[in-house]
Amino acid sequence: MQFAERVKQLPPYLFVGISRAIAEKKKQGIDVISFGIGDPDIPTPYTVIEELKKSSEISANHRYPETEGLPEYRASVAKFYKNRFGVDLDPESQIINLIGAKEGIAHAPLCFIDPGDIAICPNPAYPVYEIGTMFAGGECHMVNLEESKNYLLDPADIPSDIAKKAKILWINYPNNPTGACADISYFENIINFCKQYDIALLHDACYTEVTFDGYIAPSILEVDGAMDICMEFHSLSKTANMTGWRVGTAVGNTEMINALMRVKSNIDSGLPQAIQQMGISAFNLSKDWLFHNNEIYRKRRDKIVNVLNSIGVKTSTPKAGLYIWTPIPDGFTSAEFATKLLEEVNVVVTPGNGYGSAGEGYIRLSLTIPDDQIDEGLNRLSKFRINS
Ligand SMILES: Cc1ncc(COP(=O)(O)O)c(C=O)c1O
Predict the structure, then answer these.
(1) How far is the CA of 348 from the centre of ligand 1 (A)?
(2) Which of ligand 1's atoms lies nearest the C-alpha of 39?
(3) Which of 179, 214, 220, 331 has the least C-beta neighbours within 10 A?
(4) CATH number for the domain including 37?
């Protein structure tokens, strides 16, 4: 049997190593606290689960869904975009549902990339931008996100011969893993760049609703003319603690949405309708609910940032997202530092280079573990000595 090159090229799943290390410790009877994976520990809201119970009993929902999603689902996304961002979307032609944003992100390059084509991707980043491009036969030109530039992908770092050849450019704000946020003027700038070079701009906006301290994250579609070249990905995974239900959406330019719809209609059969009904209910969650949910994460964020600073890991406070991204002290690689934490205080963090070579020198801690475990993890971390 011979496997395709694309399978051979796949890097090991980032969290496999972490899971193995945890399992190894468990075998030794040691209980590890993991700040590794970003997966909300807080349950999906009760009202959303109630909607599933009701919708699962309706026999029309037992049949194949339409790829693009129920009209009511798309209408709820349009309403969300109008209320939240002031953006008008046509539910018929500018919105499609996704089986989680990851699915759409992985398939989107198939709409633009032919073998040998170039996608411009951030580094570090959510790995699916690069892998989706590789699956489509394309190549990624990676642009480093630098702390000195607030982790904003800078078009000035893209050589013009690459820009001329590139078909798509990926950005993601609020950003995983760095926690960086972009404002409207940044979006205007990157849109102008992409228009100049006829590049489709794909914005992963999965964390726009997980924000703190009064910060309100914009949608790229708020920019005049964005609709000419942009597609934006949104997810209920982090917004509404729904990672397990797989509900996402892509919105934006009509032709881009149509291309994704055509690709998807040949690959999957859409999101189960009862789950779309959950999505409708989640898009209607009150501002109050979102605020209280985010407050849980904010309190965790503050505690973690304090303890890291107290042990000499100089950490700043992100205003969005579910992660603390912080440079490690001199003299270690990311993996060495993560291993030292695991060995000495039985705490797991993610080495930054798991998100790309430019993540070397950083670690990521997730805010998605229950409070008692956070407290125990921080208790352990506070006893950690960098130079021991
Ligand atoms: C930046 C980013 N985009 C997309 C996703 C995937 O979201 P979903 O659960 O909707 O597939 C994640 C999940 O961690 C993410 O961090």
Answers:
(1) 21
(2) 14
(3) 214
(4) 3.90.1150.10
